[in-house]
Specification:
This protein is an alpha+beta fold. The chain has one domain: Sulfite Oxidase, Chain A, domain 2. Helices cover 18% and strands 20% of the residues. It has 9 helices and 13 strands. The strands form 2 sheets. Strands 1, 4, 5, 8, 9, 10, 12 and 13 form an 8-stranded mixed β-sheet that branches. The protein has a 5-stranded mixed β-sheet with strand order 3-2-11-6-7. A hairpin with a 5-residue loop joins strand 2 and strand 3. The termini are far apart. The N terminus is likely disordered. The structure holds ligand MTE.
Length: 325
């Protein structure tokens, strides 16, 4: 087995494609392996041919995080990778794991732009090397009243935002997912506006718990869980945790988001911008008081801010949390 120093790793290295590849790409993989042995540094470009799907690969050098949540049983990985919301790949929970298999996640760049002094495009390799990768166990609560506990891997979003230096005009952060109907033909039937858009207030985005996530369970993200890079915002409903991010834009005004624009069965908006987990504010069509953790039978009470009040409640002091739901 080849062991590379962490600093030599590329995103293509940690995303072994041979398990998901056809013959052409398999040969490309063989060539790449030979290339690693030869110590050639231009590997990412070589593996980044069109049509390469990706499957998770081990992430090395992951450190323990001060922000990890202790005392929770981790949800089995198979539940987390087969029960998903990723509407671009279908609206049933089992659709994304089946339909995202060949989603091409390399090459990949994330543009960080807008009200910033140093706008910049980051490649996945640059993102992986920006800061030590931390494993953070977080509770994750979907607005549909199911929840999971996942050992995510990444670092605080503030790390990448600080790189581009937000100007004083930046008040919000707008995120955009990748959307390409050829790769995501079911997106057109999803009933939501795509590309998927999300947003945070700048101080929320700068809170250290807001995680820019590149992996889980020790590996890179599976496609259905948002490869190659997503957000995980543990005190908010899961829909705020946007997957497969290509753009992060710092802006003056509160941005439009996919679920703010969505109107439910009676033509009324159903989801607020803040979307903080709040057992006291029901969804128009169901209660938010309890949740079912995947893999468990009995429901459990939902916690205010999903149990992260100590870290985030101060962000909302003075706000009416019923109005600003
Ligand atoms: N991001 C994109 N691009 N598309 C989506 O459909 N679904 C959201 C969020 N991020 C979604 C997305 C919703 S509703 C939830 S609950 C979480 O992803 C689910 O994340 P998981 O499948 O990893 O549990």
């Amino acid at each position: 087995m080849l062991i590379k120093r962490k600093t030599d790793l590329t995103y293509a290295d940690v995303t072994p494609k041979e398990r998901a590849m056809g013959r052409r790409n398999f040969l490309m993989g063989l060539l790449a392996t030979t290339t690693i042995v030869a110590g050639w540094k231009k590997l990412p470009g070589l593996l980044a041919g069109p049509g390469t799907g990706s499957v998770p690969g081990k992430l090395n050098g992951v450190v323990k995080s001060p922000y990890t949540t202790s005392g929770e049983k981790i949800t089995p990985e198979t539940d987390v990778t087969t029960y998903n919301n990723y509407y671009e790949f279908g609206t049933d929970k089992g659709d994304p794991s089946k339909n995202a298999k060949n989603f091409q996640t390399s090459p990949w760049t994330v543009s960080v732009e807008g009200e910033v002094t140093k706008p910049r495009k980051f490649t996945m390799d640059e993102i992986l090397k920006l800061a030590p990768l931390e494993e953070r166990i977080y509770r994750h609560r979907c607005v549909e009243a199911w929840s999971i506990v996942v050992p995510w891997i990444g670092y605080s979003l503030s790390t990448i935002l600080n790189q581009v230096q937000p100007t004083p005009k930046a008040k919000y952060v707008a995120f955009e997912s990748y959307y390409e109907p050829k790769q995501m033909p079911l997106g057109g039937e999803a009933g939501i506006a795509l590309p998927y858009l999300e947003g945070l207030r700048l101080d929320e985005a700068m809170n250290p718990l807001a995680l820019l996530c590149v992996g889980m369970y020790g590996e890179t993200l599976p496609n259905q869980d948002g490869a190659p890079v997503r957000m995980v915002i543990p005190w908010k409903y899961g829909f705020k945790s946007i997957k497969s991010i290509v753009k992060i834009r710092l802006v003056k005004d509160q941005p439009q988001t996919t679920w703010n624009m969505y109107t439910g069965f009676n033509g009324q908006p159903e989801y607020g911008f803040y979307a903080n987990v709040n057992p006291k504010v029901d969804h128009p069509r169901w209660s938010q008081a309890k949740e079912r953790r995947l893999g468990e039978f009995l429901k459990r009470p939902t916690l205010m801010f999903n149990g992260y009040s100590d870290q985030v409640a101060s962000l909302y002091s003075g706000m009416d949390l019923r109005k600003n739901y």
